[in-house]
Structures are given as C-alpha cells and as structure tokens.
Amino acid sequence: MRDVCAAWTLKHKPKSLRDVVGNKETIRKFVDWVKSWEGGIPKNRAAFLYGPPGIGKTVTVEALANDFHMELVEKNASDYRTEEAIKRFAGLASQYGSLFGGKRIILLDELDGLTGTADKGGVKATIEIVKTAQCPVVLIANNAYNPRFSTLRNYCILIEFKKPPAGEVMKHLKRICLREGIQVEEDALKFIARRSEGDVRSAVNDFQALAQGKKKLTYDDVLWLGYRDRQETIFAVLRMIIYSKTCEGAKRAVRMADVDLDMLFQWIYENVPAHLTDPHDLASAMDALSMADVYRGRIRRTRDWSFMRYIIDFMTAGVAMARVNTKPSGWIPFKFPQRIRMLSRSKAERAMQLSIGYKIKRKCHVSAVRASKDILPYLRIIFKNNADMAAGLAKWLDLDLRMVEYLAGSKKKSKDIIELLS
Amino acid sequence: MWAEKYRPKTLDGMVDQKEIVERLRSFVKSRNVSHCIFAGPPGTGKTTAALCLARDLYGDAYRGHIMELNASDERGINVVRETVKTFARVRSIGEIPFKIMVLDESDNMTSDAQQALRRTMERYTETCRFILIANYSGKIIEPIQSRCAPFRFTYLPRKDHDQHLRLIAEKENLNLLDDGLDAIFEVCGGDLRRAINTLQAAASLNRPIDAKVIYSIAGRAHPADVRKMIETAMGGNFLEARKQLRDMIQKYGVAGSDIIRQIHTEIFRSTVPEPWKLKLADIAGEIDYRLVEGADEEVQLSALLARLVEAGYELRETR
To answer: Under an 8 A CB cutoff, do A368 and B70 touch?
Structure first.
C-alpha cells in the first residue's frame, strides 16, 4: 500500500501509551492492573474497558502490549460469534506465557457486537474464559452496563474511558500535521477537534479527508466539514432561486431540498451581489432580504412562526424578481458565507462575555447583559494595552484566569497581567 | 473602574440634574420617599441618584436597606413574585421604617412582571419603596406610572460634562487635549458613564488623549471611515463597501444604530446635490426603522448600502 493511501487513523496510531490521547488516569489504573499480574493472578482476571467510540480503548491495549512487549491475542466481533468459536479460543487464555517466552494478553473487542441469537451463549463462553484465565483478559464495549453483561461485570475490573477534551484532540492532530508536513491554521484544527466531540478517530478521519494532499489547510477549507454532503444541494437551490423567472419556481427551490433556512439565507445574502450586478437589481434584491430579515425579527418578537412564509417569499421570490436588467453572464462560482464562520466562532465567545458581564455587574450597578455590551469593550482595550491598570481591574472585578486571557487577547499579554497579580 | 471610583457618593456630589437633586433632598429631609420612576438616557445619573439618596437617608450602612435588581438579567414574573416580595415585606430595622428597592433597567421587564409588581408595590408600601429606573418611562405600564413620582433625567450640559471629565483627568494625571474632549462628547453624546469608560480606556494607552485615540477605542467608527464607506458604495463598489461595513461591525464592535446615525450625519455633510440629501436621508430612515424591527444589523445595513449604490448610479446618469 502506498503511503498516501493509508488511513491516518492507522498510520498515526499511537504506538506507545505515552502518545495515547487523553484518559491519563484511566490508563494508569489499567496499567496497574496489568502489572498486578506479576505477583500472581489478581482478584479480577479481566478488565472491562468501556466508553464511547473512537476515544482510544483498543489503541490503549495495543500500545500497552507494545510498551510491555506482550503478545496481543485479539478477537473482535467480526471473528468470534458463537459459543463454540469462543471456546476454541479459550485454550489460548489458559497460559500466561506464550510459546516464544513473552507474556500474553487477550483482547476481546467490540463486545457490544455480541448480539442476537447468532451469538447465543457468546457471553456465557466469555464468562468461562474470564473465570479460568491464566493471563490478563481485556474486554471492550461501548456500554458495560448493558444488562446482558450483568454477570460478566462481576468478574471484571471496570475501567471507564472518557471523551478527551478538545485540547487533547488538537495536540494529536498537531502531531499528525508535523509528520505529514502540513501547515494548518490553529482555528481549523480547533474546529475539527471541537466538532469531533472527543471522538479522536472521527477527528483524524475528518482531518485526513480535508488535509490530505495539501500543503496548507485554512479555516475556510474546514468549514465545509459541517456541510460537506450538502454542498451540492445548496448550490442547486441557490441557482434555482437566483435565476428563477417565476415566484413559484424560486419558492419551490426551498421545498425541494432539506436545507436549513437560516443557512440558506446566509448563502443567498453572501452571493446575491456577485450574481445581480445591476445597481437597481441589487438594491431591490437586498431590499427583499432586508424585508425577510424584518419578518425574522417579527417572528422573534411575536413567537408566531406562521410569519415564516413571508421570510421565504422575500428571500426567494423577492430575490428572483429583482433580476430585471442584469443579464446572466457565464459561470460565477458560489462563495461560502463569510458570516457563518463568524457565527460559529462567536457562540462560545458570547458565553464568555456574559460571564464577565456578571463579574462587572457585581461592582458597577449595571445588568450583566449591558455590562457585556457597554463596558466589556473598554476592558478589552485596557487589558490589551496596560498591564498595570488591567491587573488592578482584574483584582477588583475578581476575574478568573480565563477571563483575563480572553480580555487580553493573547497568552503573552495575559501572562504579564497575571504576573502582576501574584 | 473610574466610573465607579468617581461615582458621586452623596446627593451634594451629583453633577448637574439640579431640580431632581433638589426634590430628592426634600425626601431626605422629610425622611420619607415615595415610589419613583427615574427615566432618562443612559449615563445621566439615574442609578447614582438612587444610591446617593439611599446613602443620605440611611448613612454608610445603607447597603442593608437597599436592594438592586436588574430587570435585564432577571426580568421574569417569578423574580417579582419571589425576590421582590421577600425583600419588600420584611420590615426594616432602624429609624426609617421602609427599605428601598431599586429596579434597574425596568423598561426591560415583561408586562406580566410589571402587572405583578403593581400589586406588590401597593401591598408593601409601608415597608418598601420602589425606585424604577428606565430609559423610556413609556415602556412602564400606566398603573405603575400613576403610583410613582416621575423624575426626568436629561443629558448633562456640555459645560458640566467637560468639567467633570477634566476633573478626573487632573486627578489621574492625564494629558486630555481639547479635541479629545470634543471627540468624547461627540462619541458618547453626554452619556457620562460611557464618557468616563472611554477616558479610562484611552488613558490605558499612555498617550496624549486626542480625537484619534478616542475614535479608535470608542467602539465607534471614525467619521472618515463612514464617509469612505458611503463613497465606496455610491461609487458603485458594493462588495468593497460591505467589507468595510463588516470590519466596522465585527472588528470594532460598532452598533448598527450608531452606524446609521453616522451615515445620516455624513449624508448632510457630503457633496451630493441638495435634493438628493433628503432622498438619502429617507432611505436611511426607512432602514433605521427596519433595524428596530429586524433581527440582523448587517443585513439591514447592507440593504442600505445597496440603495446607496443605486443612488450613486442614478446620480451619474442624470449628470
């Protein structure tokens, strides 16, 4: 297999426990249990690792076998199904040392896959193995608390793997960047890491899909991720709306595809100017979008969603009918809405602003909402420019480190401020 | 924050608002306070007046006798039912038999909450007096208004505004230049809290404080930038104008309504033919109104820019 074809999840799989993403405490617990075999058979002959997919359970066992030079005997759901198949497997577990002198560790992966009548007795057979095992047996499943494992659990030490935080996932992605020689914007990595919600495997897969074959990866490239499979749909819908000759045709475009209306609005808003170049046409198209937005405001105020139909009228038919003078002129590509990148960034930011707002409120007799809008911008200027004044304010307002860092805008500046504080 | 450091502590220390201060003093003298509405634009001393009144009335231990609630953060009816009632019904210990409840930004209270408040005010008048603070007294329901003594706060006169800022500049050892002071007034429009915050942020730069410094920090577009955006639009380049708009909103955090106000000002300073100025003002007015109704500042302002592009085009046609 040529290098470029290899899945990065395999190619960059951690070889050593040191490199496994997150779950440090958990891994230590697991290692301690394996080491306890040195002093004879421990109380629990099996460890049951469980947790959501893609967070490194199997990888941990493999890395451990590698670090401790153990022979890993692995069976997963695709190999063993029935009671008999497992029993045949049981012989392997009956001795600690393998033929080649190394120690052995047995891994039964994907226990969740042990379902239905086909696997009848599979759990029972597994219990038998665990009861009599002469070497460490590791069981892996997403959900250890499935009722079918209730007896099995009694023989195992339960070890829960948790989703690693986005920061840990990012570190792993960064390592891959380095090895693959790809330059990636920090924000892009953050986006991928966050989106994966702790599923390292899917993060690496996503990352490969986007980055492979590239020298550089920007935040804009990454944004497609969320909408990757919808990109073509959105283009078709946009074309129907912007180039439709009838109201009905433009409106039908929305019904045709399952697109999020807010998203679609942003797409239209971003792309209308390039496609309607005549000043009159542009003005009336933008006017239609402005009216659609007015109805959006009305919905928000009245909570009456039946106004939605007018939003659709204005953003589709309104835009389509704006074309009077502009001639269709060849191929104009559609652009990804700038504002969506802004919006996806600003959610977390708003939460941060409000929490600072509450700190200000306690001192300044204003509401947190207003403080975060009216006063916070000034704090930001001060924190960026004047560490002395900032330190005084941070103390007075009782800001925590994250807040200081947010206001200062960079780690370096916040460090100056924090030094003054201590 | 200097806005707190230099917040007047007593009614005597209040800047301007003379009539109001006079009436509040008579409250202190008679040891009685009626329910009040303090209405007026931001940064004109409403909250300060309430705090000063409380301090003059109860002395330094005033904090035990007063409660501040912010309707923007807690505006539901439950707050009135629980927090307000609990506070209002317990009798105050000490010489003055009532406490003071300050409801800040109370024009943001839901009308349900206001209805609930109305009864609470009546029932617990003996033990608690309410001061409702609002930008627009019109947003407070009629029955409450009729129970309250109205106080109308207005923007400080320029003279008092300048004097107060110069005083702070002197105490903080700042080099506040005249055009800097002008810029502060232009940007904050007499909102003293904002003015002081602006001054403090400007001071953090450790530079003489002139107009340029002020515009750069005030969360306000520099008039030159607004002018440039209008020119770009009227020159026919919508995409570039929209980019400039985005920069203003996103990078400098300028509010949409502020930009419209500035566009409006710039229209009349511009060189377009006189009749066109009114046409453009009409467009700005329409969009300003939609901004109040709409949900998205950038979309509304872009629509305005597109109209400016159109106007610029028509202007060139007629010439």
So the answer is: yes
